[in-house]
Structures are given as structure tokens and as C-alpha cells.
Specification:
alpha/beta, D-Maltodextrin-Binding Protein, domain 2, 9-stranded mixed beta sheet, two-stranded antiparallel ribbon, 17 helices
Length: about 400
Amino acid sequence: MSAKRRLFSGLVLIMGLLSVSLGGCGNRSRPLESVSLAFGCPEPLQEAYGPLVDAFNETYPDVTVEFLDQGEYLNSGDLFLNSQYSLNELTSNGGVLALDPYVTAAKDFDRDDFYPGLLEAFTRQGKLWAVPASADPIMIFYNRALFDEAGVSYPTSAWTDADFLEAAQATTDVDAQTFGYVSTPHLPDASIFVYQQGGRLVDDLQDPTRVTFDEPATIEAVTWYADLVNRHDVAPTPRQRRVMFPGQQGVYQGILEERAAMWMGYFSERGGRYWPIEWFDHWGMVPLPRHGQSLASFADTQAFFISADAEDPDAVWVLIDFLSEQSTAAGVPARRSVVESDQYAAQVGDEIAVMARAAMDSAVVLPADVQGLEAVFDAFDDAVAAILRGDASPAEALSEAQQAAEAALGP
């Protein structure tokens, strides 16, 4: 699976316009008739949502909620979880209900409580099709033991790219085959760092009209990224990666063998969640470093959809409204009030809560149509590979790649 596809799909494959007339929808005080609801939830997340479903079943004893066992996102059940990348398919085939009637009737549904970009990610043609459940921002993970050995202070949520470079230089020991920073195969870190550095690949991720590889900020960002490898020697060259971290899983093994002081990953990965091998316990996590006043990080997001075939959509809405006000230990809850609560800090720990808040304040939620930009990202990745090999300067490689990307983006 390509790096772009992993970014667009998430770690666990997290990817008809129909309006309804509903009386009294969104009113949680309405008596609910006896009904059994099937909750389509991928198995890795059932452990997280299990206690919340149990709490709902106790609060509403006439409504029984059971998990519909699906290893992947099959878009089945009375309600189901899926990412923004499934929105086009679900709305075009009439598989889900528009939720605006419920939102309008729900007096306590506070749109401003959701982090910026989350509700917009599930809005199409002026209609809201899902309620965001959580977000999964990109973070920097680090090995506390390697920082301690190098005498480097742990990064904070206010650290800068200068702090990042200083830490990477101090923790790199090429003779010991240890690097300050190592990229992981499942994330296109070059493009992520471009946005963190204040650059961009297209003029507008939500509605792209032109490619922006040739903008000075983008060229400077790519130069900064390439310098990590070719100038500062704090990240492995392509050849070093092949030798020191062979195979698709080599980098992950190298991280667990403590040969990487820092690496990039999803918030939900922390502690080795979804990894086949348990992490060491001396890891830390921090948002991407700041570049001047700029800080941006991509984030995936999941949301609750109501199936068009739901037996009792009113009851499903009550469940969604309940779940959206709770927190799980996986992704960052979509509601700011939940993330800033003492309950969330107690659940994940004070340090993780601080990092979650900082990351979400700068998260860029990729649009549902981002798959259409894959050719643009492909052209960009080809340019970065040429730069890291030393085949061309950043300006030269990006200029050539821009032509290919513009042809792919079309008029």
C-alpha cells in the first residue's frame, strides 16, 4: 500500500442524497421503544467503544446495542463508523441519512464544540451526513532513553523545528546505526513536513485549482527536509535505509531495537496500538514542531453514520448523540469540551491530554475528495526521491514534477 493511501485510509482501513422528514427527532427525552441496534464497528475499536455501549444500554434499557462484527469498514449496521474518505461513495449510493433534521431539532447540539474542519469533512452539498467521533492527528514519537543518553530535554508542545534539528543531531550516532529521525513507510512525511513548514502542494486542499510545488515556501520546506538526510546526516539516506532497515517492516523493527530517536505516526498508534510488536515503555509523544508561527499537521477523522436501512433512525440518533459526548482511549475525541475535560485527562494521562489539545488546535483535516490528488502526491514523492538521491536540486526536481502534477490535476 502506498504511503499516500495509508495517510488517506488510516491504520485499520478507517475509508442517493437522501433527506428525511422526522417528527421530534433529536429529543433525547422522547421515550424510546424497544429496539435492537446493530453498531458496525471494526474489531480493533470494539474494546474502546464497549464500555460506552454498556453505559448507553444501562441508561436506555429499552434499546439494546450490539456490535456488528466486521473486520473492516463494511458500511453495515444501523449505525457504523467510517472515515471522511467514504463520504462520496455513501452519499452517492444513498446508503446513509442526512442528519440536518436531527441537528436542527437537537437544542444542545453545539457545532462550535467540534474542532475546526471535522463537521466540514462530513458535509456535502450543504448537508451533514455524519457526526464526527474522533480525529487522529499525525504526531512525533520519541525514545526517552536515547534523549536521556544524549542529554537532550524532552520536547514540549511548544517546540520548534530548530529544537527538532538540535535533538536529531544530538541523538544521531551513525556508527551505532542510530538516527535522530527515521521516516515510517505508512506516512508520506515529506509532504506532511511541507505543510508543517508553511508550504503547500496545491492552492486549496478542499478545492484545488493549481499545483504549488514552485512556490518559495514549498521549495524551502523540501530543502529543509532533504537537508535532514543530505546535509545534517540525522536521517538515513535511501541506501542506508535499505542496508540498516531492510524490507517493508525494517524501519519498525529498527524503532523497536531503539535505533531511531524520533519517528512520525498517528496519535492512535501510541504505545504500539495496532503494531504487531509491543513498544518499549520509555516512549514519548509530541505534536509536530512549530516553524515560526506556523504549525500544521494532517489528521484523519472518523464519524458515526446512520444507515438508510436503519429500523429506528430516531433511536440511532440518540445513541450517536450520546457517544459523541464521550471519549475513548484511541483517537482524540471530536468535541473540544471532551478533550479539555478532567475525565479525559484522567483517562489518557495529563501529558497525553496536553499533546492531544495542542495537536488538534493545528490539525488540517484532509477532504473526502483527497484521493483525486494522489497523482499530485505521486509527482511530489518522485521529486523528493530524486532530491534525496542527489539527482537534482529541490528547485529543479519540483519544477519538473509540477508539470506532471498539473497535467494530472487538469484544468
